[in-house]
Every structure is written in structure tokens, then in C-alpha cells.
Task: inverse folding
């Protein structure tokens, strides 16, 4: 079963032969350079994740560090079974093939859709409350020292300008338009950087949640993956990624209901009272920043890796930005500049 690996991956074939693994199948990759394989022993299936070798980091590798932190915080993340830092191999529990995105394809009504999202929001609030520094006094975690400040948020906007407008679209801005674009995006980043922070997943969308059966009827696990880049940020950060997703479009009425659910649930679990008007403004501005950042990433996958597979999501993502900015007359010129250089 391993002979087909010899030509392309001798190290992997040798590693698997040294274990009780009897079969291996390569899985489709994600937006990263990591590679994944489903491997089987006589008694179980597992996922082998191959990354760059990390002998100097060991258990301090961000993925392993945050997996341990989240697991100890009561967050459902994949179990680590074994690892080989020298080869860059991490053996994980097999969560199956059903992402939240795939699970949503089978919804039969808006009520079912909302129930699913409420379960995922429950997990997100657990992350924000249970994995944040206040819940871990005295604990040192590198993610606690990183945050979405103005510099980081604005860097992502410059990344979008470079890779989407300049790189992919080959647009040249009039100097006054580029100045306005940067000024108004900077205002948005200023607002977001002033919001109190929680622990954020940083890439919390429907492809980074696995839906895994528990064996009980209609009871699934909603398991977070791809959490290694976690850092401190506004509570709206991951919420905007989830509800204003590039891969799955929720109707505006559904988004508002889910925001109501989030606010009520967050207040109940955190003991904090949210100012609804301020929270909703933060959510909208975060949605704009997150969606523009995603557009920059999609374009960069083509520019840097020659991967055009994510370009098809840009249209939906830009529509998210357009609808959000329409609510705010003070950003009408920003909207005009963004879309003029996109369409014309």
C-alpha cells in the first residue's frame, strides 16, 4: 500500500513502514503548504499532517502549543496522537471529511441552518471566554502577547492593495484615490484596534470547523482546526469571519438573528454587558476589514503560489463589503474607490 509513495516521498514511506500503519491515502490540501494523509492501522484511522521539520521548536511549535492550550481550555480540537519533529510529522485523530461548509449543503430550512450556526457560535464564545488570558492567570502563551493592533490590521489592508489591486487587477490608483483609500481604511483599523480583546482563532470560517458524528442521533462535534495563528483581537473578529464568510453566504435577516443570539449568549457566559450599538458598529467594520483581507489572500495565492482556486470567492466577498459599507454614509467615498478600481 506504500509503494506509490517511494518516488515522491521516501521519508514518509520509511516512517510509515516503521509503524503499525498498513495503508495511506493523500488528502486534498488547504490554503497552506501543509500536506495531509489518511492512514490506517488494523484498529483505527488517523490523519498524518506533514509540515516543515521542527526539531528546534518541538512542543513549542505554534500548532502544538495552541492545541494544548485550547484542549486544556475545554475547546474541542483534534487530539494529537504522535509526532516526529525531525521529519515534520504530526499524527492526529481522524475527524472525517465533513467540514461545516459541507454540512451546510444538506440543510433543509433556515431554522436548521440557524440551529447549526448557534452550535458553532457556542463553541466560539467558549473559545473567547475560556481560552483568553483572564481564564488563565499566570499562564504564558505567545498568542497572549500578539494582538490585532492598528499596525497589524493596516498591514493586512496594504497586503490587499498590493496583491489584489496592484498584482491581480494590475490597477494604478490616482494619487488622491490611493490617499483616500488608505486614510479611510486606517480610520476603520483605528476603531477596531481600540476594542477590548479576547483570544481569537484568526481564521474561523466554515472550512475550518469539522463536523464529526458522536454516535448519538443528531449529535455532532463541531471541532476547530487550523488554529495555530491565534492571537488577541476584538470579539467581533472571528464572529465576522463566520457570519460574513467568503465561502457560504447567509441572508442578512439570518445574520441579525445570529448576532442577537451571540450577544445574549456572550453576556450570559462572560458576565459582561455589551453595548449593542457599539458592538454592531464594531462587527460591521470588522467585517469590512476581514473581507478585504480575505480578498488580498485569495489574490496572493495566485501571485505567490500560482493557485487560482480561490479567485472564484472574490465576488461574494466584495458583495459582503459593498452591502456593509452602504450602511455608513461616512464611508461612501471609500466604497466608491474600492469598487471603481475593481469593476472599471
Result:
Amino acid at each position: 500500500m506504500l509503494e506509490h509513495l517511494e518516488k515522491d516521498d521516501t521519508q514518509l514511506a520509511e516512517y510509515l513502514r516503521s509503524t503499525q500503519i498498513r495503508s495511506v491515502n493523500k488528502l486534498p490540501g488547504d490554503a497552506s503548504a501543509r500536506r495531509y494523509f489518511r492512514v490506517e492501522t488494523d484498529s483505527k484511522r488517523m490523519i498524518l499532517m506533514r509540515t516543515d521539520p521542527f526539531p528546534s521548536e518541538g512542543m513549542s511549535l505554534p500548532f502544538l502549543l495552541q492545541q494544548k492550550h485550547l484542549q486544556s481550555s475545554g475547546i474541542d480540537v483534534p487530539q494529537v496522537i504522535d509526532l516526529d519533529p525531525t521529519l515534520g510529522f504530526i499524527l492526529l485523530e481522524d475527524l472525517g471529511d465533513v467540514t461545516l461548509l459541507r454540512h451546510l449543503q444538506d440543510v433543509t430550512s433556515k431554522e436548521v441552518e440557524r440551529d447549526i450556526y448557534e452550535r458553532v457560535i457556542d463553541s466560539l464564545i467558549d473559545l473567547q471566554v475560556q481560552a483568553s488570558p483572564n481564564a488563565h492567570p499566570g499562564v504564558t502563551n505567545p498568542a497572549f502577547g500578539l494582538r490585532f493592533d492598528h499596525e497589524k490590521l493596516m498591514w493586512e489592508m496594504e497586503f490587499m492593495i498590493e496583491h489584489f489591486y496592484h498584482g491581480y487587477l494590475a490597477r494604478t490608483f490616482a494619487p488622491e484615490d490611493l490617499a483616500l483609500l488608505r486614510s479611510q481604511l486606517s480610520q476603520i483599523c483605528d476603531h477596531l484596534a481600540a476594542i477590548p480583546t479576547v483570544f481569537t482563532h484568526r481564521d474561523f470560517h466554515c472550512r475550518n470547523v469539522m463536523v464529526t458524528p458522536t454516535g448519538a442521533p443528531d449529535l455532532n462535534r463541531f471541532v476547530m482546526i487550523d488554529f495555530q495563528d491565534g492571537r488577541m483581537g476584538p470579539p467581533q473578529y472571528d464572529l465576522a469571519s463566520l457570519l460574513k464568510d467568503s465561502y457560504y453566504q447567509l441572508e442578512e435577516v439570518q445574520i441579525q438573528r445570529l448576532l442577537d443570539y451571540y450577544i445574549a449568549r456572550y453576556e450570559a457566559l462572560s458576565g459582561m454587558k455589551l453595548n449593542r450599538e457599539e458592538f454592531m458598529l464594531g462587527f460591521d467594520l470588522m467585517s469590512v476589514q476581514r473581507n478585504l483581507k480575505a480578498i488580498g489572500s485569495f489574490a496572493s495565492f495566485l501571485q505567490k503560489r500560482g493557485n487560482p482556486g480561490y479567485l472564484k470567492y472574490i465576488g461574494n466577498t466584495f458583495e459582503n463589503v459593498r452591502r456593509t459599507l452602504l450602511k455608513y454614509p461616512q464611508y461612501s467615498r471609500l466604497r466608491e474607490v474600492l469598487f471603481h478600481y475593481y469593476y472599471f
